[in-house]
Specification:
By secondary structure, the chain is mainly alpha-helical. Helices cover 76% and strands 0% of the residues. The chain has one domain. It is built from seven helices and no strands. Helix 2 packs antiparallel against helix 3 and helix 2 packs parallel to helix 4.
Length: 221
């Protein structure tokens, strides 16, 4: 049985779109070459994901419109500054981290409202999967932050760290794939790897497993 279409003022919860945007972002960051243009595009995809969350997750139409407008205006200005290389690298890095934390925080609030209002739906599962991907991106940002603070090679196999290698390493750790081509060389890096492995597996087994099982049971009923 299909859920009723949202009436005016009711949240729409487009978390399938958010999941696709975040998945695209993960692939783009790994593939794209380093540079102001690539950073601007990556930030634009992140901002668009936050825009979708803000525009569809809140219960009040006025709150959704105001939130979406604020994200759109701020995002457009920052993207233009990044693309032209006007923003210092440190500020760009900090903004990426802030956005990487803001999206899952906002998304989780919307997911809770969705589950309370409609129960487990396909959009709820998509939102939970998006949170999983966002946690991987957030860990990648923390990895780069630690590498900057320590000032020594983070990986045993290479001297420099890039957004591409950090994201790639983060997801191989979180999924416990462990190809072995990149390994943490420091004690802090190894501790982060263990934390990400444990959190990633707990999230998949508990959160994703429960939501998918509940959705399947609901459809059978």
């Amino acid at each position: 049985m299909r859920a009723a279409a949202p009436v005016d003022g009711e949240a729409a919860y487009r978390y399938g779109v958010v999941f696709l945007l975040v998945l695209t972002l993960v692939a783009f960051v790994i593939i794209a070459p380093a540079g102001p243009g690539a950073r601007a595009i990556g930030f634009a995809i992140e901002a668009l994901a936050l825009l979708v969350v803000a525009a569809t997750s809140r219960a009040g139409a006025d709150a959704r419109r105001m939130g979406a407008l604020a994200v759109a205006v701020a995002g457009a200005i920052l993207i233009a500054l990044m693309a032209t290389g006007t923003l210092p690298d440190a500020i760009t890095f900090a903004l990426n981290g802030l956005l990487a934390a803001a999206i899952p925080f906002t998304l989780v609030g919307g997911l809770i409202r969705l589950l309370r209002a409609r129960g487990v739906t396909a959009q709820a599962v998509a939102g939970a999967l998006a949170v999983y991907l966002l946690v991987g991106l957030l860990f990648a940002w923390v990895i780069m932050l630690v590498a900057r603070i320590e000032g020594i090679p983070y990986f045993a196999q290479q001297h420099t760290i890039t957004a591409s290698s950090a994201v790639y390493f983060s997801f191989t750790v979180m999924t416990t794939t462990g190809f072995g081509d990149l390994t943490a060389a420091t004690h802090v890096g190894r501790a982060l790897a263990v934390m990400e492995e444990v959190l990633g597996q707990i999230y998949v087994v508990v959160v994703i497993g429960v939501l998918v099982g509940s959705l399947a049971g609901r459809r059978q009923a």
